[in-house]
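Researcher: Good morning. I'm working through a list of sequences from a screen, and I'd like to move beyond sequence-only analysis. For each chain I'm collecting a predicted structure so we can compare shapes side by side. This is the next one on the list. No need for commentary yet; just the structure.
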Amino acid sequence: MAKKFWPGPNEDPLGKHFSIKSKKDKFIEVVGIVQDGKYRDITEEPQPYFYLPLSQSYLPLRTLFVRTSVAPESLALRIEEQIRDLAPGLPVSEVQSMNQSLQGANGLFFYSFGAQLTAVMGLLGLVLAVVGIYSVGSYAAAQRTHEIGIRMALGAAPRDVLKMILRQGLGVIGIGLALGLAISFAGTRLLRDLFVGIKPTDPLTFTSVALLLSLVALMASWLPARRATRVDPLVALRHE
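Model: Good morning. Structure tokens for this chain:
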């Protein structure tokens, strides 16, 4: 807020006055500056924000934060006693550590739950992709058993047949990976605001998934072709 409204290098925000609604509204004097923070949501961008004294902007519910050098739980009773000494009529409730607060409904619980649910859905999607790629690749390679029998009957070596199957499989895999990565990169741009603390285009994730799916696709092409090359050419020729 200080940088936005008093951006000059020699302009000191301290002592400046501003009003919230209009010039007729009561003016507020700047008496201090704090760092940017997140006030409503952990995904929000830094925005102009200011604090008012409790006497000028009263709300019945307030939160007191206490930084300690020891276990917070060991000071809970002492903090409550100190508050009662200063304000006997002030009720104190929900005394808890920051970790406990962050794990609750007002903290990161829903974000953590959403992340876990997304991870489970992602793993299920990966499993389905692996099963689907292997099934389709294996079926496509098995359908070429008759073709493999003809090639071997004409003198083709099993090694050459395997190289041909794998080379053609790599071409299909390359096209699929290129399209999949392009769509994934485009999708992460749309979901960029949902990623907190990590890069949307994490290279380790993209590389690992691409290698896994490539390996599965290669195995799906190689295993049926390898079995077909070990079959007698006459039996392979009669294969439907």
